[in-house]
Amino acid sequence: MTPDPRATPPAGSGGADKFDDDEYPAYTMGRAAEMLGTSQNFLRSLDEAGLIEPQRSPGGHRRYSRQQLRIAARVRELVDQGTAVEAACRIVSLEDQLHESQRQNEELRSAE
């Protein structure tokens, strides 16, 4: 994904270099929903399910990172295939846990 030039970082946050950071909360809820082709309610449901916890702007608005948008896109794929949102969130969470366990196992094998 390419950073949205309309999504500007808060004043004094270090400028455009933050957009290279996958964890930087560069996208508003409206822009994130637009990019994903979904509704803002869908994003709220991911927050309520505990899968994605967006940062909040000083005004209390949700802000999403590119990494969070990738996770939301994975959930949306499952939902589009007929999976319930709650089940899709659990599947994505378990997939992430599996990938992390595999990475740790590979590290341990490499260290031997």
Structure description:
This protein has 112 residues and is mainly alpha-helical. The protein has one domain (15-111): Multidrug-efflux Transporter Regulator, Chain: A, Domain 2. It has 4 helices and 3 strands. Helix 3 crosses helix 4 (85-111). Residues 1-13 have low confidence and may be disordered.
Mean pLDDT: 86
Give the helix level as a range of percent.
Answer: 40-55%
Q: What class would the helix/strand composition place it in?
A: mainly alpha
The N- and C-terminal alpha carbons lie at a distance of: 38 Å
Overall body shape? globular
Query: What pattern of helices and strands is seen along the backbone?
Result: EHHEEHH
Question: How is the main sheet built?
Answer: 3 strands, antiparallel
The number of E-state strands comes to 3
